[in-house]
Amino acid sequence: MYQQHRLVGLERILYAVVASICLAVIVGVNLEFTNWPIRSVPVVSALAAVAYLSTFVALYRRKASGSEPSKSAVQFNTGSNSETQSDDGGVQLGSIIVAVAIMVALVSVTFVAAQPQRGETYSEFGLLTENNGTLQADGYPEEMALGESSDLYFTVTNREQQHTNYVVVVQLTRTAPTGDATERTRLDTYSETISPGNTWQKRHTVTPVLEGERLRLTYLLYRDGIPDQPTVDNAYRETHIWIDVT
User: What backbone torsions phi and psi does residue 181 show, to the nearest 5 degrees?
Assistant: First the structure.
């Protein structure tokens, strides 16, 4: 029969340090693939949850085994040669565990670094006109006749780091002096799925169907479908120009 090895003080400290490093790395790697940002509150909360769970499991196992807490939990061994040999064996085992933990940490960090950086996700949305074959954010029509058509361009650049289905709703809106919409007409709806980093550039024709001064030609950008009543308030992005229609 082999003699059961008991952990000595140095081994316990070594195991505690190594376990802490491993848990911190594991928690950080897993948070990277969740919707939670890697900030102090999520990290501390996750580590606290792991610590509480580990404590509960340890208490349950100790109670189930009926063993008493070790009296040498924080003492270093200074006894006979046989005890010293046991301590040396424990240190060697601890060194192996430390080496393995460092390898695990390095592999985890390398794996995370190889993944696409999540960073900030957003979409660029703009309205352009054409001047001698060049697109520019200038020269927008200010006056149009009722039923007259004008060509414009809108652009959507996907910075969401994933394939995204976009919908653009074009509206002509009559507004009160306070800016609230009093009458709204949808002119067109466009949709496109864009891969990460690509730009959707759409040439389209605008034909006003409302008459009045300072009508708002509004472009509403949505992701993955549109609501029953598209408005500036529920749009993901919005851009507009003001026109007089006579």
Answer: -75, 130
